[in-house]
Write a structure and sequence with these properties.
single chain, Calcium-transporting ATPase, cytoplasmic domain N, 4 domains, eight-stranded mixed sheet, 26 strands, HAD-IC family P-type ATPase, transmembrane helix, ATPase_P-typ_TM_dom_sf, transmembrane
């Protein structure tokens, strides 16, 4: 038999316990048998293994192979710069691996946070006395004492309850406190049973005694934790795309290197010389700075997002946000303020503003004063200066007390007696002593309070006959707004009259109705509209009642005329195909959902090809947060469990912050494309010199160490500057990119390799041969590596590539818009990147240490001047291409009518 179906005596008998709990000896025996009351940590990958993995992914392996080939080449043909090249490549692998590991390690939260919701200590009956024990020492059969403000330490069955109400939001998602009883009940499961208290929930009102029946991983809390730990995380779109890009570039570089080697051998180049140039081709093709630049760019994006109140725990989540097609959002605290508030009053048959004028504090009218004294005095709150309004307890009661306090009305006097709120009664009464004598204050569900009233308060404070029609009209008007309606009533008690049971709640005078809501946040409606404009569906997934969810959805713009509501029980019964079809509804709300229901919704959306972002704050949200493409936890109201499972934490718990983060994520994807175009462009002027050397037997225009100067030196900071570009105007007015859309597509490759890269290569070789010709070199004449003319010519080739990349830095800021309207104020890092690039190339060209390290020689001023026409020509050609693209897009828009 389920424990909630049995009476108290049978429950205690089944657990071999009693109303006064266990003996210390029996508790020790059970502790040895059942273990401690704690959530077991999921077995984690060793730290050293995670660190080592940063150096063994595909891209790193390619670099390791290139470094090994360089070492081998240096052994057989020393003095060609292969040893410094190998050291530089290993340095790149090490620095990038350490940085990536540090970013992940710094953001990672220990899984021990799963135990943070459980209280440190609990009041337990042992040996017939109440002791304060560590919660980890609880065992099945222990009897614990609980009162308002306590967290529940384990799954317990109530054996005594007085006005007990609990907040189950962390487990069920239900925002309203639920009453609890000690009697046997019928329920479909532990979560629905009204006589159970679940680990991780909290008591908001009343007090009681309960016997522990499940601890640790056997609790509902532990079950959800287990589900969270074993929910597989999907790799982010960026992770998949970078892996694909790494394979593509690495394979292409290797194939091209092998072709160059075979061509060299075919035309008679010595074996090791051919191998040397094959390694050079591989190094020129593999952008060694790609991974450090991507990592740093994402890290910079996380800093920008942190300034917008979004804390990113996993770097790849930044870009995943930009691809989001569906946001499954919680209601309480995300769409709403998570603060109950009285927003409507019905007093003497008329609607009244619950907020007094701001310019002065008027005295409330007589009927308003009578209503407010019930709101101020009929509650089970306790004073807490740190809590909302100075009270701790039921949020609905806090809202009523705050409403009264705004008018200057507080508790009337000494409390004489109390009839607590209980399920079935759905009301609460308090007897207080006033200057005019004892008074009974009563509040509760309107249908129960009104039937116990014999009159209602009139406009001048007099008593009038009940106007059932007006009361019903007022109640319906509030219900249509999705408000929680509370009726407030009172009556004068006779001298010496006792308040001991329900009979005292008779002959009441109805003081009025109060409409309470958890109001939507101020700019959520605008944020939801931005999502719709951006082609992102927003689905509310909440544990709350459907009527409440629909009302909030209507206020924030989530619901339409044909809104479909999926309850948790519907989701559980549906097949996968049925659920997929149901999720196609344009206006959809999922209400009364459990952890499994929410997880199933997320997985069904992903199966449809959606990129899903999920918000949550409770333990019950953690499995869905982990399974989602981007899990978003609440920073203020969220549990540590939810934060541990999430990729991003909202510091302000605000839905609008998610929309800002999506905007940043879209900008990250575009910025990645910008700096990939920039980085890949320089590959062509690095490759072409090797092809010219092998095919035309000219002196090698660019050495391998000079290639490294571009890839790991001059290109790094400018590429980072492109990664820090602000979101462009209109980025949120376009639909999310398709899942199949590549980071590096044919258009990007064509622009970088076949257009900009070709222009740079042509310019570099033009200057190179110009310097050789000016120095008296003739075609076919050999030049040694230490020849001053050769050094100056290779320096000119290197400098030309860098100068062309300076222009390319601005050309790559946008693939369509012209370069001149794009100001620098929004991205000062561009100027730093430009300055760094020019200072570094000047140091390489003119400082002795630069000459020695990179095999360069100082250049005369006229060589720099010869580069300027080529730079201008590249700008004119690229801007002409952009103008042609813009005209094509405009023409297509005219043809399609939009």
């Amino acid at each position: 038999m389920d424990i909630w179906c049995a009476n108290v005596e049978d429950v205690l008998l089944g657990l071999k316990s009693g109303a006064d709990g266990l003996s210390s000896a029996e508790a020790r025996r059970r502790l040895a048998a059942f273990g401690e009351n704690r959530v077991q940590e999921h077995r984690r990958e060793p730290l050293a293994w995670r660190f080592g993995r940063e150096f063994t992914h595909f891209f790193a392996i390619v670099l390791w192979v290139a470094a090994a080939l360089a070492i081998v080449a240096d052994q057989f043909d020393p003095g060609q710069g292969m040893a410094p090249l190998a050291v530089a490549i290993v340095g790149v692998i090490f620095v990038n691996g350490c940085f990536s590991f540090w970013q992940a390690y710094r953001a990672e939260r220990a899984i021990a946070a799963l135990t943070a919701l459980l209280p440190q200590r609990a009041n337990v009956w042992r040996d017939g006395a109440v002791l304060s024990l560590l919660a980890t020492q609880l065992v099945p059969g222990d009897v614990v004492l609980l009162e308002a403000g306590d967290n529940v330490p384990a799954d317990c069955r109530l054996i005594e309850a007085l006005g007990l109400r609990v907040n189950n939001a962390t487990v069920t998602g239900e925002s309203r406190p639920a009453s609890r009883v000690a009697d046997a009940v019928e329920a479909s499961g532990a979560i629905e049973a009204r006589n159970l208290l679940l680990a991780g929930t909290s008591v908001v009102a009343g007090r009681g005694r309960a016997v522990v029946f499940a601890i640790g991983m056997r609790t509902e809390f532990g079950r959800i934790a287990h589900l969270t730990q074993h929910t597989e995380e999907r790799p982010s779109p960026l992770t998949i795309e970078i892996a694909r890009l790494s394979r593509l570039i690495s394979v292409a570089a290797t194939v091209l290197g092998v072709i160059v080697f075979l061509l060299g051998r075919a035309i008679g180049v010595p074996f090791w010389e051919s191998a040397l140039f094959a390694v050079g081709i591989i190094v020129a093709n593999v952008p060694e700075g790609l991974l450090p630049t991507v990592t740093l760019s994402l890290a910079m994006a996380t800093q920008r997002m942190a300034r917008r109140k979004a804390l990113v725990r996993h770097l790849q989540a930044v870009e995943a946000l930009g691809a989001t097609t569906v946001i499954c959002t919680d209601k309480t605290g995300t769409l709403t303020e998570n603060r109950m508030r009285v927003v409507s009053l019905l007093v003497a048959g008329a609607a009244c503003d619950p907020v007094p004028p701001t310019d002065h504090m008027p005295s409330p009218s007589p009927p308003m004063a009578d209503l407010l004294r019930v709101a101020a005095g009929c509650h089970g709150l306790r004073a807490d200066p740190a809590a909302q309004g100075g009270w701790a307890g039921d949020p609905m009661e806090v809202a009523l007390a705050e409403c009264a306090a705004r008018w200057g009305v507080r508790e009337l006097g000494e409390r004489l007696a109390e009839l607590p709120f209980e399920t079935g009664r759905n009301r609460m009464s308090v007897a207080v002593q006033t200057a005019d004598g004892p008074v009974l204050l009563c509040k509760g569900a309107p249908e129960l309070i009104v039937q116990r009233c014999v009159a209602q308060r009139g406009a001048d404070g007099e008593t009038l006959a009940l106007d059932a029609v007006a009361i019903r009209a007022g109640l319906d008007a509030m219900a249509r707004r999705g408000l929680r309606v509370i009726a407030l009533a009172s009556r004068a008690l006779a001298p010496g009259e006792t308040v001991a049971d329900d009979n005292a709640e008779r002959d009441l005078i109805l003081e009025g109705l109060a409409g309470i809501e958890d109001p939507p946040r101020a700019d959520v409606r605008e944020a939801v509209a931005r999502c719709h404009e951006a082609g992102i569906r927003v689905i509310m997934v909440t544990g709350d009642h459907p009527a409440t969810a629909i009302a909030i959805g209507r206020e924030v713009g989530l619901t339409g005329e044909a809104t479909r509501v999926l309850r948790g029980e519907n989701i559980a019964r549906m097949t996968t195909a049925q659920l997929a079809l149901a999720l196609e509804s344009p206006h959809l709300i999922c209400a009364r959902v459990s952890a499994e229901h929410k997880l199933r919704v997320v997985q069904a959306l992903q199966a449809r090809g959606e990129i899903v972002a999920v918000t949550g704050d409770g333990v019950n949200d953690a499995p869905a947060l982990r399974a989602a493409d981007i899990g978003i936890a609440m920073g203020k109201s969220g549990t540590d469990v939810a934060k541990e499972a999430a990729d991003m934490v909202l510091l302000d718990d605000h839905f609008a912050t998610i929309v800002n983060a999506v905007e940043e994520g879209r900008a990250v994807f575009e910025n990645l494309r910008k700096f990939l175009t920039y980085i890949l462009t320089s590959n062509i002027p690095e490759i072409v010199p090797y092809l010219a050397f092998v095919l035309f037997r000219v002196p090698l225009p660019l050495t391998i160490i000079q290639i490294l100067a571009v890839d790991l030196g001059t290109d790094m900071l400018p590429a980072l500057a492109l990664g820090a570009e602000a979101p462009r105007p209109g980025i949120m007015s376009q639909p999310p990119r398709a899942r199949r859309e590549r980071l590096v597509d044919g258009a990007l490759v064509a622009r970088a390799y076949l257009f900009l890269g070709v222009l740079e290569a042509a310019a570099a070789l033009t200057i190179y041969f110009g310097v050789l010709g000016t120095g008296g070199w003739h075609w076919g004449e050999p030049l040694g590596g230490l020849d001053p003319l050769y050094r100056q010519a290779t320096t000119a080739c290197l400098a030309t590539i860098v100068v062309m990349q300076v222009a390319n830095l601005f050309l790559c800021r946008d693939p369509r818009r012209p370069v001149w309207p794009l100001g620098l104020a929004a991205n000062p890092l561009l100027l730093w990147g430009l300055g760094f690039e020019l200072v570094l190339i000047a140091a390489i060209v003119y400082l002795p240490v630069g000459n020695q390290l990179f095999g360069t020689a100082p250049l005369p001023a006229e060589v720099w001047l010869q580069m300027l026409p080529l730079v201008l020509l590249m700008i004119v050609i690229e801007e002409s291409r952009k103008a042609w693209v813009r005209r094509r897009i405009a023409r297509r828009a005219e043809i399609t009518g939009g």
